[in-house]
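mind reviewing these tokens:
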Amino acid sequence: MKKEILIAQLEEKTASIIAWVEEQAANQFAHQITPEKWSTGQHLQHLIKSTKPLNQGLNMPKMALRGMFGKNNREERTYEQLVEKYQGKLAEGLPPNTNNSFAPKSVENSQKSEILTTFRTEVDNLKKIVEKWNEKNLSEYILPHPLIGKLTIREMLYFTIYHTEYHHKILERDYSYA
């Protein structure tokens, strides 16, 4: 996917999950169907926690990125290949040393507006940052993903697009009320 399509996909997936959340009753935002299932608010909080470090990484000077993580030395994955790799890792189960910094805290119904605003802001920031990158650099520079390993910036954007859609589907499955 070219940069313009990546940005359009980010916009589409974000707008879709936000619209879904906005349609839900305010008193359902913090509701968990079971103690081990995240609430709607927690899903959004998780998406925020996974987007913030991406924004921080993409805002770093490219020389710093190269020094910390190196450069891509393999064929770049397609969107479909990235999704398949992620789904495979999920099917294996999370390793015991998985970084829990992405796990959400409990939320209150009263935080719905604040969390939605923060999510919008983080994704808007991501789109603005991606605008500044050129096509070549999206495939050249890499960042670490806690589950999949080193990904090109383009692959990390593929992940972010899929990850947003993935959580939206979970919410629709678990929290769509008749």
